[in-house]
Structure formats: structure tokens, C-alpha cells
Request: fold
Amino acid sequence: MLGCVMPRRLGQHFLRGAFVDRLLDVVDPQPDEVFFEIGPGAGALTAPLAESASRVVAIEIDAGLARRVAATAPPNVEIVQGDALKMDLRSLVPEDSRVVGNLPYYVSSPLLRRILDLRDRVRDAHVMLQDEVARRIASPPGSRSYGILSVLYALWADVDVPLRFPPEAFRPPPRVSSALLRARFRDEPRADVPDLESFERFLRQAFARRRRTLENNLQDSYPKLKDYLRFLNLEGSRRAETLGVVEFAALWRALKAG
Ligand code: SAM
Reply:
């Protein structure tokens, strides 16, 4: 059996048939749609996607698996062998496509960040993640797991977690439960953030020490912080994890302009 002889390196946990169906019921691929898949593995999702949709482009790091899945794939599937963390995804991802992936958990956060950079090319993303990571991205302000990626996804997408899978859904089973994160990208962001990289750097400062207050985390970098907090009616004693994306964006714009 495939999964039992595969090494666990590269986050290789292969989805079992019944769970493939449940995942694809949520994705609901349509005949005119194009998919971009990250980590097709042995093609558990690739093959049924290719049957239902018009085209699938997939990137797989493991040369053996990439060759194998390419050899049996129908003509509307293009397998690219490479590292999804390093390759220029924008040149691979077809315009107006949809992202799907049972992501390798050891790199799921940087991959999620890269997917966000594709937001103008893709309609949505359905990615299987470690349950805890999926919850973190989808969690609202005020919860302990709310963090930088939650804010960035809240800025650009409507996110939810429509499915949870136990470890037995995969071969071999991972140590943790998994969940499907669904991100539907918005045409317009929830707040005006013209420079995402700069905003991200600011968020990193704000979240630098989670137990500290905003004032403690930001004061050294922004000497006029207190004035702007007062102007925006934000308590400096709040922690970063309590601010929504609109509040973060307003504070960042004020500090940048000041
Ligand atoms: N989609 C298949 C399934 O559901 O059965 C396989 C999913 S498995 C969790 C993750 C897949 O991602 C593996 O095939 C692994 O080789 C591949 N992978 C790991 N790191 C990768 C990377 N950096 N870029 C592209 N693929 C990667």
C-alpha cells in the first residue's frame, strides 16, 4: 500500500479515498474551472479534480512522485516538479484559478503566506492543514491563537474551516488532527493597506511579545505612538491579539504618515 512504504519526510501523508470524496464535496469543482494543486503526491486529489474540472496544474517537490503521477495523469493535468516555497508560483498559477492542497504540514505557514500573494490570480483556496493551524488562521481577534496570518487573511479573504479530519484519514496517519481551511479571496481588502510588506513588518512588531501590550511592543519604533493611539481611540494597554484588521490598518496608516 502506497502510504505505508512512503517516507514521512516532506510531510507525505496521503488522503484515503472516502475522505477525498468529502473534501471534494466541499471544493465542488466545476467543468469550466482551473485548479492549482500544491503537493499532489500520488494524485489522490489530482485525478478526480481533472475529471470534474477543465485543467489542473500541480507542483510536487518529490521527483519520483511527480514522474509517477505525470505518467498516469490525463492530458488536462500538468505536473511541475519543484519546491512550492521557492518557485515563482505566479508564473505557474493560471489566472482565475482555484488553489487546492493537502499541504505538507512542516511548511504550511510559509505556503499559506505564499498563497496570499496569489490573491489577484486565484478565486479561493482549500487547503488541508494541521487543525491547530487552520483554527489559527480562521480565529477572530481576542482568541489566543489569533496572529499575523489571521490578520493578513482577514484583510484579503473570507475564511472558515468547513471540515475536520482525524489522523486515520491519512496514510500513514499524522500525529495530529487536520482541518480544511477555506479562503475565499475578496475583490477589495477589508481595510486600506497599500503596502502589504510594510504592514506585515508592523504586525510582526505588534505581535513580537504576545503577552506585552501594544505600547510595550511598538513604543521604541514609533516615538509618537501614544498620540496616534489617543487620536484613534485605541487603548495602548491592549494586546495585539485583541485588535481587528481594520484597527491594525488604521494604526499602521497613521504611524506611517506621522
Ligand atoms: N495530495 C496528496 C494526498 O492528499 O494524498 C499528498 C499530500 S501530502 C500531505 C503533501 C505532498 O506535498 C507530498 O506529496 C509531498 O511530497 C509534497 N511536498 C512537500 N513539500 C513540498 C514543497 N515544498 N513543494 C511542493 N510539494 C511539496
Summary: Strands lie at 14-15, 34-38, 55-60, 77-81, 97-102, 122-130, 157-165, 170-171, 178-185.
